[in-house]
């Protein structure tokens, strides 16, 4: 996991194994600590090949944690990968999702906003 900090913004770039079962606890502990100083957190999941249910659930709890602290979370990933997890876990009942594309980029690159 690599993070970039800029004023109220924290961008977290995950590596391929940061969210697997063996690294999940340490990754989330770092994520919670680093998010304390920032009002907007962007998670870049583009290097994650598979997001299991435990990791997805942990991200839902992280989103709720930030929301309780009046902070925002956005996740960046391809529509197919993150959208599949979103649908599989029936997250429509927990959080809303929308996306937008940049006309200069491939349409597979989406920005997901979780409110």
From TrEMBL:
SUPFAM superfamilies: SpoIIaa-like. This is Anti-anti-sigma regulatory factor.
């Amino acid at each position: 996991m690599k993070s970039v900090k800029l004023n109220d913004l924290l961008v977290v770039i995950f590596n391929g194994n940061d969210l697997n079962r063996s690294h999940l606890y340490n990754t989330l502990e770092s994520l919670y600590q680093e998010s304390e100083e920032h009002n907007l957190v962007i998670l870049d999941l583009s290097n994650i090949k598979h997001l299991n249910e435990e990791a997805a659930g942990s991200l839902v709890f992280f989103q709720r944690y930030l929301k309780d602290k009046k902070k925002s979370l956005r996740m960046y990933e391809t529509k197919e990968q993150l959208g599949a997890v979103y649908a599989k876990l029936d997250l429509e009942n927990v959080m809303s999702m929308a996306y937008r594309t940049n006309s200069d980029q491939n349409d597979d690159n989406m920005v997901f906003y979780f409110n």
